[in-house]
Specification:
Order of helices and strands: HHHEEHHHHEEEHHHHE
Structural class: alpha+beta
Oligomer: single chain
Distance between the termini: 35 Å
Radius of gyration: 22 Å
Shape: flat
Strand content: 15-25%
């Protein structure tokens, strides 16, 4: 396999993603032959990169279009991108957002990622009309459409570039208008919006086995020359894995909304006790313009 030439732009991109030094990034990219994911893993094994750093910092403009049905059984978030924030604030772009949401509603369960990106599909054709009118490149990059028991949303009011959608189960009609439930929905959606790092999974058992094994491998590599006995290393590795869960599993995260910082699972348990219910989070999506982080 031919050796890839490592450019200054590639080095800067990896540095932005990981926070590691320029030379460390260049060496890692050289070793990984330009593979960014592998280079990131190499840096983490050397203890030079943070697992919480995000790849692909947002560079594009646009807004998150959002809609939830009156009974909260259906919710939609759509990321619509453009080149400038000025265009994102125009009436034509705002109308595009409304029209895309209407198209999603009409498609129903057929509103998939493949449908969204179909060059001959209704969304791409509708976007093309606005591109022709405004003369700026645009695209609809992601969709999160939930149909379930109860769907709650939070849209960051400053800018409209961040939207969170959460599907809850165990929500009978009797509790939907209660303040305790409304507060729970608001707190969970706002936590997902504000948490850093952002949660990636609802529960520990949703973390893919290959992700867990990759993390274990990285932690063992970090301990390779520690001189500690194997049983001690095993305990350290499992402890680090516990920290990983606390960073990336929603229910294991500490609430960023409350000063007392209870775990999210305890916030939900407290609300359930007050409501006499068994409300649970089944899935969530967090869409921020320019980032690729939908679950």
């Amino acid at each position: 396999m031919a050796t890839m030439a490592i450019t200054a732009e590639m080095v800067k991109k990896l540095r932005d993603q990981t926070g590691a030094g320029m030379m460390e990034c260049k060496n890692a990219l050289t070793q990984a032959n330009g593979d960014f994911e592998e280079a990131n893993t190499i840096l983490r094994k050397r203890g030079l990169a943070s697992a919480a750093k995000k790849a692909g910092r947002a560079t594009s403009e646009g807004l998150i279009a959002h809609r939830v049905s009156a009974d909260h059984s259906i919710g939609t978030l759509v990321e619509i991108n453009c080149e400038s924030d000025f265009v994102a604030r125009t009436p034509d772009f705002q109308q595009l957002m409304t029209d895309v949401l209407d198209l999603v509603d009409s498609a129903g369960d057929g509103a998939t990622e493949a449908w969204l990106q179909d060059p001959e599909g209704p969304v791409r054709k509708r976007v093309a009309a606005t591109i022709a009118k405004l003369g700026e490149n645009m695209g609809v990059s992601r969709i999160a459409r939930y149909k379930g028991d109860y769907v709650g949303q939070y849209i960051h009011t400053v800018g409209g570039k961040l939207g969170v959608q959460v599907e809850f189960s165990g929500v009978p009609a009797a509790i939907r208008d209660r303040d305790e439930f409304k507060s729970l929905v608001r707190e969970i959606t706002m936590h997902i919006a504000a948490a850093n790092p952002s949660p990636q999974y609802v529960t520990r058992d949703r973390v893919p086995a290959d992700v867990i094994e990759k993390e274990r491998g990285i932690y063992r590599a970090q301990m390779e020359h520690s001189g500690k006995p194997a049983n001690v290393i095993d305990k350290v590795v499992e402890g680090k894995l516990g920290s990983y869960y606390q960073q990336f599993v929603l229910l294991d995260q500490e609430s960023v909304i409350r000063e007392t910082k209870p775990k999210v699972k305890d916030v939900i348990a407290e609300a359930n006790k007050a409501l006499g219910a068994t409300v649970a989070v089944t899935r969530f999506a967090r869409l921020k313009v320019g980032e690729a982080q939908a679950l």
